[in-house]
Fold:
Amino acid sequence: MTTKRILSCMQPTSHLHLGNYLGALKNWVKLQDEGGECFYGVVDLHAITQPYDNDTLAEATREIAAAYIAGGVDPEKSALFVQSAIPGHSQLMWLLATMTQMGKLERMTQFKDKAGKHKERAGLGLFAYPVLMAADILLYKATHVPVGDDQKQHLELARDVAATFNTRYNRNFFIQPEPVIMGDATRVMSLRDGTQKMSKSAESDMSRINLTDDADMIAKKIRKAKTDPEPLPETFKELEERPEALNLVTIYAALADKKKERVLREFAGKQFSEFKPALVDIAVEHLAPITQRMNELLKDKAEIDRILQSGAEQAREVADPVIEETMDIMGFWR
Ligand code: TRP
Structure:
């Protein structure tokens, strides 16, 4: 049996929230505990493709690493690394950029969204973002990449670039990674608008539960979360038309590790005045230890740095030979 090699990353752009935890981190931990060989990165080179603060980048990077660990990523089992600490990411990106068509990059919906109206003013880095992401993945010959829906197109590009390389140099060198789509089941939406994803960039902080929120704040945000006047229905079908209600049930189910149908069986006919306190309890029960561990870690920067150093060493052990072999295959003088 060949083991799965799993790779996934997040950008150190701001605090993580419940959506990142339930939609991504929790699955990373599951994959780790199922025995996969896991590489989890903090992609700071991606973070600088949009305006950022150079005074806080390093701290934001540590904070994401602390969130990974507090959320259950075990540095003894998984390699936890910072992208910029492994030169191979930038090196491979350049090599792959030479075999990526601009037309394909132009079709990336995330680029179109982020570049906005003035595409000609967008930086080359933003345009090439998916090539760097392809490099992140191919550099480790990852077989499985957990991503959210919004990253599927980028992963498809990575598969495409791998195939282009293999065809061009006539060998089966890069692995085409499989997406691990982490279920719509845990798509966490905004607490203010059940049709929008919970996001770190939404202007209202009341729309999300941050992993740094304390119990009082969590309770307040859930109490104020938008709902509708109906009691909870008996069937899932009836929930589908009620985005805010669906979202709260989804969050409850994900935290309790239960099926949504089962949560409905427990709460059918009950009002939100009864459901919300139950949701507060379970949210606080789950998140309080994470928040606490994160705050402890953040007080001990040296410990985080030690973990990231050791993760970088593990990452380089895999990445360096891949870069060397890629350059050999491409025919460089060495
Ligand atoms: N683009 C991803 C995001 O914004 C982050 C990312 C960068 C990533 N490199 C990756 C995710 C490689 C998975 C694998 O969410």
